[in-house]
Amino acid sequence: MDKVLEIAKMIDHSLLHPTLTDKELEEGCEIARRCHAASACVKPCHIRRTAELLRGSDVIVCGVIGFPHGNSTTKVKVFETEQAMDDGATEIDMVVNIGKVLSGDWAYVEAEIKAISDAVKSRNCSLKVIFENDYLEDSHKIRLCEICSREKVAFVKTSTGYNFVKTEDGKYFTYKGATDHDLALMRKHSDPSVQVKAAGSVSNLDAILRVKALGVTRVGTKGTEAIVEAARARFG
Q1: CB 3.0-4.6 Å disulfide test: which of 62, 117, 161, 216 passes with 39?
Q2: How many structural domains is the chain composed of?
Q3: CA–CA separation, 41 vs 60, rounded Å?
């Protein structure tokens, strides 16, 4: 695999903004196809159309589950996962129940991840588990890595890219997303068979090369076209 394609195949082209229109979905899928991204990552309502738009390409369809807050019941998340796969998704990015993680209800968290993992594996698809690290302490992240390693999920993932942290004065600020600290921590505490996906704040070629050196094999970004163009200019 040449260097440019190697970079492209690290990218899940993100088409997840709440305001995304049908026209923007079509344009985004064309970018993913033209750039040979690993996947187009889309909301459940867009999975079927995305599968149609990408048919015959080397770009797979990734659907998000319980996105972005992770608060649906396990039964609903499993149903949403099965529907996503019926519609054409072969990768699933699920958000953990963040409140249950912070509550230390690890039995609930592990049972939910297992239920979704079992559903995904039954179709020979791949599961990425989103932690939403800005809300968590390192101890939570490590425990989640251990659970995901036991379940042999395909990826652990830093964040959704679509949440905000509330400060003491009631205001909100955009969170950090994928930090080098978190990526190194997740790589260290995950089984070697579990890959790491960085999402949030990885928006250019240098950032991708930096996180790749930390052991990251997939990134979520909207900047796919600019990144691939930069890779072509640098690596030919």
Answers
A1: 62
A2: 1
A3: 9
Per-residue pLDDT of the chain (236 residues; tens, 9 = 90+): 699 999 999 999 999 999 999 999 999 999 999 999 999 999 999 999 999 999 999 999 999 999 999 999 999 999 999 999 999 999 999 999 999 999 999 999 999 999 999 999 999 999 999 999 999 999 999 999 999 999 999 999 999 988 766 667 766 566 677 999 999 999 999 999 999 999 988 889 999 999 999 999 999 999 999 999 999 999 97
User: Residues with catalytic annotation?
Assistant: 93, 157, 197
Q: What is the CATH number of the domain that holds 198?
A: 3.20.20.70
CB pairs under 8 A, 24+ apart, for 200-204? 200/158, 200/159, 200/160, 200/161, 200/175, 200/176, 201/176, 201/177, 202/177, 202/178, 203/227, 204/230
Boundaries of domain holding 11: 3-235
Model pTM above 0.85 = yes
